[in-house]
């Protein structure tokens, strides 16, 4: 029942049978409309479906890219931690209290005294 029929019925003007007749007339008129309007409606519906599918495809692509980016980020963090450990000063376990420096450019870890000598020998 259309809103206008319901409104009229509430006002006491038209019976339920009159509303049914009006709806039947509208249904009979609908197929007589040109097929162009149906084609336009179908085209609009297809466009709406495409607009809905594009964001879904983009989201799917982003979900596939996230694990790769996360893996690369984790590898970079591990590499940074390894580099930090290589360059950081640490206490040698075999000789307590003696500071040893890990110097990758010199090849091996060296004691603090050797490092001072090496610094002084540089021009």
UniProtKB/TrEMBL annotation:
Feature: compositional bias, Polar residues: 111-123
Highest taxon of source: Eukaryota
Lineage: Eukaryota, Sar, Alveolata, Apicomplexa, Conoidasida
Compositionally biased spans, kind Low complexity: 52-85
MF-aspect GO terms: transferase activity
Protein name: Dihydrolipoamide succinyltransferase component of 2-oxoglutaratedehydrogenase complex, putative
Keyword terms: Transferase
Chain segments carrying region Disordered: 52-123
